[in-house]
Amino acid sequence: MREKYILSLVQFSHSSKTKNLPIWERGFSRSDEANLLIFNNSYAFILGLIFDHGIKSNIAWTSPHKLKQRLGHLNVKRVADMEINQLTSVIAQKKSLHRFPKNTAKHIIESSRIIRDKFRSKADLIWHENKSIISAKKNFLKLCGIGEKKANLAILLLAREFRVKFDDVHLLDVALDSHVQRVLLRSGYFNTSTKEGTAELNSAFREVHPNFPALLGTPLWYVGRHFCTMTQPKCKTCPVSKWCSKLFQRINET
């Protein structure tokens, strides 16, 4: 059952539904201008990652563009020199760019100082330093407000959307955001709230998709966002429900 469930994810990842998703359905903004900035400015990409906590991803990835409009620039050195209260007031202007403006401002300023001091003010050196995801992940984890999950997400986006070539992309684990974790937990096959469960998940995904196991996070994220929702999940129309053990459990109980 579990193997068939994972294979159904692989099949869904190759379907037209996931291959031809518009950019906002792949986690980015609904604004073309905001996306253009993210794809052409590596520092804006870092800011998008930092904004992406506690708010919807579409809003988070729009925020670097709005921050640039409010500041009049996105200069990493100038942002690094700002005081936290100063940047907090900019973020908190109506309409606030984040529900936690002070924490977000702190993360942005501290990360900007790290980029200035350790990466010569060039954010893309975080991943272009060499072609290893291990090195890139270590660099991402040096930034403030970016943990294991966001580091994995960043590398996945760079490889999948920006076509950055990593020699060891087969080592990248699935980014466990709230949508992905909910789908996995409800499936009944993986409990990613424990280290053992997460290790089991990564091992299983590597067996089925050895070249790029993290790509299986894309269909999981899509299923979580559109079918396996927090309330009133659409099990009957879910593309992977046939092999979902929780669904079988509910059928057997009725």
The CATH superfamily of the largest domain bears the name Hypothetical protein, domain 2
The portion of residues forming beta strands comes to under 5%
Low-confidence stretches: none
CATH architecture of the largest domain: Orthogonal Bundle
- Count of individual domains: 2
> What is the structural class?
mainly alpha
Q: Which CATH class of the largest domain applies here?
A: Mainly Alpha
Number of strands: 0
Oligomeric state of this protein? single chain
Let me know the average pLDDT. 90
Q: Nearest-angstrom radius of gyration?
A: 19 Å
Gross morphology: globular
If you consult CATH, what is the topology of the largest domain?
A: Endonuclease III, domain 1
Separation of the first and last Cα atoms: 20 Å
Order of helices and strands: HHHHHHHHHHHHHHHH
Helix content: 55-70%
- Count up the helices: 16
Largest sheet, strands/sense/barrel: none
Organism: Candidatus Portnoybacteria bacterium CG23_combo_of_CG06-09_8_20_14_all_37_13
GO biological process, one term: nucleotide-excision repair
Keywords: DNA damage, DNA repair, Glycosidase, Hydrolase, Lyase
Protein name: HhH-GPD domain-containing protein
What can you see in these coordinates?
By secondary structure, this protein is mainly alpha-helical. It folds into two domains: 101 residues, Endonuclease Iii, domain 2 (Orthogonal Bundle), CATH 1.10.1670.10; 140 residues, Orthogonal Bundle (Endonuclease III, domain 1), CATH 1.10.340.30. 58% of the residues lie in helices and 0% in strands. The protein is built from 16 helices and no strands. Helix 3 packs across helix 4 and helix 8 crosses helix 9. The longest helix has 18 residues. The model has no long low-confidence stretch (mean pLDDT 90). Keywords: DNA damage, DNA repair, Glycosidase, Hydrolase, Lyase. InterPro entries: DNA_glycosylase, HhH_base_excis_C.
